[in-house]
Amino acid sequence: MPTTGPSDKKIGFIEAFSIGVGGMVGGGIFAVLGLTIALAHGAAPIAFAVAGLIALVTVYSYVKLSLRYPSEGGTIAFIVAGFGNGLFSALVNNLMLISYVIMLALYAYAFGSYGSALLLGSDVAWLHKALAAGVIILFAFVNLMGAFMTGKTEDVMVFVKLAILMVFAGVGMMTLDPARLAPDAWSAPVSVATGGLMIFLAYEGFELIANTAKDIKAPEKNLPRAYYGAVIFVILLYIAVAAVAVGNVSLHEAEHAKDYVLAVAAEPFFGKTGFTLIAVAAMLSTASAINATLYGGGRVSYLIAKLGELPEAFDRKIKQGYEGMVIIALLSIIFTISFTLENISVAGSMGFLIIFSLVNLANFRLYKQTGGNRVISGFGFVLCISATAVLLGYNALHTPRALISSGVVMMAVGLFTYLYYAIEKRVSIKSDTLK
Q1: pLDDT, tens only, 248-277
Q2: 92 and 355 in contact (C-beta within 8 Å)?
Q3: Which domain holds residue 220?
Q4: Where are the beta strands (DSSP E) in 224-354?
Q5: pTM of the full predicted structure?
Q6: CA distances (Å), 294 to each of 121, 134, 145, 218, in order?
Q7: Cα separation of 160 and 388, whole Å?
Q8: Is residue 303 domain-resident?
C-alpha cells in the first residue's frame, strides 16, 4: 500500500480562499444587515465598507505573522508569540474563546429568526428561541458523533451560499430605488461608522485562514493571496448585498423585519419565492456556520487548555469531540436565549476588535522577526482601538443596555482567567515544592 507523504496533506490557494470566504459569509450578513440599515439608513453599503477597511488593514499583520509563526493555533499562537504565555495572553485567548461563543449565539439567533419567519411569517419569540437552541444542540451532537462536514461538503456549502447571494445582488440591482441610496437618505456620519462597527463580526472569519498556514502550499505566495483575496471579495459582496437591500426595502419595512430583512428584500424581484429562497439559504448558511464554529471552538478550547489557561475539562475527549465543545455549546444557548441581537452584535464586534488590535500590536512588536512594516501594523492597532472607542462611546450614549451585557461578559472572562491563573500558579508552586 502506498504511503501518504506530507505533500498529500497540503492545501492550495482555492481551499484557503474558500475557508476565509466561508468563515466570513457565515450567518453574519443574514443576521446583522437589519441592524446596519437601522443605524446607517441609505449609507448601509458605506458602513460595510468601513468595517471592511479595518479588516483589510488587519490582514497585513495576519499575513506576516502566519508566514513567521505557522500553526494550527492561528491567532492564539500569534498572541503567545507577541506577549508570552502569561496572564495577559491567557486573558486574550479566553476572550477569543468567548467571542466564538458569541458568534455561535449570533448564528443561532439568525437561524431562529429566519426559521420563525419562514414557518409562521414573522419572528415569533418562543419558536425563534426553540429553533436557536435546537440547532446548537443538534450540531453539538453531530460533532460528538464525529459526523461533522468534510472539507468537500463545506466547499459545496460555501458555493451554495455565495451563488444565492450573488444572484440576489445581481438581480436586485435591476429593481432597486436609487433615491434610497442617495446622500440625503444617509444618517449622520457617526451613525454610519457605528453601523459598520456593530457588524464588524461579519468579517472576523478571515482569521480562520491562519489555522491553515502550516499546511498550505507555497505559503509565501498563497497565504497573502488567500487573505487579501477573501477579504476584498467579501467587502464587494457585502456592499452589493447591502445596496440591494436598502434599494428594495423601505426603512419602515427594514425596521419591522430587522432580524430577517434579507428575505424581505428579495420579495420585490422574486416574490414570495424569493422570501422562501433567502430564508432557506440563511438557515442553511447559519447551520453550516454553527457546525464549523462548534468544531473550531472545541479545537481552540483544546489548544488553550494545553497552554494551561483553561481547566483540563476542555481538552478531554467525548467520543470524537471535546468536552470543551459541549461547554461552549451550553454557553451559546444561554447567550442566544438571554441576549438581544444588538447585545450579541456589540459584544462580538467589540471582542474581535480588541483581539485584532492586539494581533496588530503583536506584529508591531515582532517586526524584526516577521519583516513587517511597523507603520502599517501600528496604523491597524490605532484603527482597531479607535473603532472600539467609537463603538463604546456611541452605545454608551444611545443603547447603554447593549454595553451592560458586554461589560458583564468581559468582567466574567477577566475574573475567571485571573482566578484560574492564580490558582494554577499556586498549585504548580506547591507541586514543585513537594517534589
Answers
A1: 888 888 877 777 888 888 888 888 888 888
A2: yes
A3: 9-100+149-281+343-425
A4: 317-318, 321-322
A5: 0.83
A6: 29, 14, 13, 29
A7: 34
A8: no
